């Protein structure tokens, strides 16, 4: 298609993929587009590339539009292969280009594409970059939909380049939504539900960051470039990500047994993390709690966290007694996770998780988070050695993540 103008010196240079495209264990029946953008300023800049399958075609086409050795910056908002896949091929010919991304994005790109010898610029949230006649501002948007993601805003023309956010999977040659030949709003909403909905708390954070930006055009990584009714599309995300209804009445019960108090400290940090999600929490030290009261509270909760210290490779206190009782109640649909402190090997925590699986809970662990949420953070089962500062910080993050699962499960 060549390059398509968005604004003065700003062009779409991507790829329309009209196949039935395999994507995240789905088939995109209507295809998709990989939207890459060229800013022909005094310091020529590329924002995102295309899928790795089209890397050579993309770079060859781009070389007919601009001398690749004159490119000064390559902005990578998100490292997945449908965005950064053509980066190695482009970087090999754009030898002078600096790669601009987040700190975590830099780590990923270096290791994924063997770019250890390239110069990277690590963005700061709300930081800016002068590209010679135009100014880019960057915002970190973690977990939309992976941890390293950021978005880019071009100030002078008021164009937001939000990567996967505000995208739609439709192959279209007209590119702009005001030229759309068919209905696409429902596809826009379906994209949100499949990709963004599991990360609704982070959608809220993103919306807060862009709330005061004056946005004329939203230029995402897939589907239509939104230059008509841009505020309406932001409103759709706002409405679909509102947490008021999802937090109302959500409850998490935390139960633990401890030997020296370290597991109690872990439980306290989990509570602090859960607070950020707005769910109501109930905490029981099993040493002093009434079993009938605990069972009643569990039945009334949306999720439970059960913790134990480890002694002689086993659980402590009456944790096992409680776990045996849980097999006798209906736990279908409830989320659960195991946690605890340990000094040597920490088997007690893994035994707790085994019981939770047997009792029919949806167990939140690393496997679950990777498959269902794209979160590669090894927080559950949560095993904290003694009560180290790093371990307690992880516990607080784990509470936050668990709360998000309760809101979106």
How would you sum up this structure in a few lines?
The protein has 409 residues and is α/β, with parallel strands linked by helices. The protein is built from 14 helices and 22 strands.
Q: What would you note in describing this structure?
A:
The mean pLDDT is about 90. This protein has about 400 residues and is of the alpha/beta class. It has helices spanning about 55-65, 80-85, 85-95, 105-115, 185-195, 200-210, 230-240, 245, 260-275, 290-300, 320-325, 345-360, 365-375, 390-409; strands at about 5, 10, 15, 20-25, 25-30, 30-35, 35-40, 45, 75, 100, 120, 130, 135-140, 150-155, 160, 215-220, 250-255, 280-285, 305-310, 335-340, 360-365, 380-385. It contains 14 helices and 22 strands. It is about 35% helix and about 20% strand. The strands form five sheets. The protein has a seven-stranded mixed β-sheet with strand order 1-2-7-8-9-10-11. It has two domains: about 5-240, 4-Layer Sandwich (Metallo-beta-lactamase, Chain A); about 245-409, 3-Layer(aba) Sandwich (Rossmann fold). β7 (about 35-40) and β8 form a beta hairpin.
- CATH homologous superfamily grouping of the largest domain: Ribonuclease Z/Hydroxyacylglutathione hydrolase-like
The amount of beta strand, in percent, is 15-25%
Gross CATH architecture of the largest domain:
4-Layer Sandwich
- Overall CATH class of the largest domain: Alpha Beta
The strands making up the biggest β-sheet line up spatially as 1-2-7-8-9-10-11
- How many strand elements? 22
The proportion of residues forming helix, as a percent range, comes to 25-40%
Write down the CATH topology of the largest domain: Metallo-beta-lactamase, Chain A
Number of domains: 2
Gross morphology is elongated
């Amino acid at each position: 298609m060549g390059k398509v103008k968005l604004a003065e010196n700003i062009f779409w240079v991507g790829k329309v993929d009209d196949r039935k495209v395999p994507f995240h264990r789905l088939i995109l029946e209507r295809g998709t587009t990989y939207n890459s953008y060229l800013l022909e300023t005094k310091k020529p800049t590329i924002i995102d590339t295309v899928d790795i399958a089209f890397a050579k075609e993309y770079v060859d086409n781009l070389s007919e539009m601009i001398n690749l050795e004159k490119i000064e910056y390559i902005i990578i908002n998100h490292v997945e292969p449908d965005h950064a896949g053509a980066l190695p091929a482009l970087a090999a010919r754009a030898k002078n280009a600096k790669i601009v991304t987040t700190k975590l994005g830099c780590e990923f790109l270096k290791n994924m594409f063997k770019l250890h010898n390239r110069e990277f610029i690590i963005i700061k949230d709300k930081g800016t970059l002068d590209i010679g006649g135009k100014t880019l501002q960057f915002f970190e948007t973690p977990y939309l939909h992976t941890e390293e993601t950021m978005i880019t805003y071009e100030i002078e023309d008021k164009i937001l380049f939000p990567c996967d956010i505000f995208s739609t999977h439709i192959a279209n040659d007209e590119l702009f939504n005001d030229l759309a030949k068919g209905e696409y709003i429902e596809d826009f909403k379906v994209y949100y539900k499949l990709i963004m909905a599991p990360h609704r708390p982070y959608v809220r954070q993103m919306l807060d960051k862009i709330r005061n930006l004056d946005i004329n055009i939203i230029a995402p990584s897939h589907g239509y470039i939104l230059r008509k009714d841009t505020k309406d599309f932001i409103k759709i995300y706002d409405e679909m990500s509102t947490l008021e209804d999802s937090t109302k009445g959500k409850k998490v019960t935390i139960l633990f047994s401890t030997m020296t108090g370290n597991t109690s400290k872990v439980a306290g940090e989990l509570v602090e993390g859960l607070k950020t999600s707005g769910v109501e929490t109930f905490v029981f030290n099993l040493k002093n709690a009434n079993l009938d009261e605990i069972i009643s509270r569990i039945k009334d909760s949306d999720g439970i966290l059960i913790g134990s210290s480890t002694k002689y490779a086993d659980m402590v206190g009456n944790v096992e007694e409680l776990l045996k009782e849980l097999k006798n109640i209906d736990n279908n649909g409830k989320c659960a996770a195991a946690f605890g402190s340990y000094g040597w090997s920490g088997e007690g925590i893994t035994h707790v998780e085994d019981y939770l699986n047997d009792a029919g809970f949806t167990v939140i662990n690393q496997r679950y988070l990777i498959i269902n949420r794209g979160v590669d953070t090894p927080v559950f089962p949560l095993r904290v050695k003694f009560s180290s500062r790093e371990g307690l910080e992880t516990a607080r993050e784990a509470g936050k993540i668990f709360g998000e699962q309760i809101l979106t499960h």
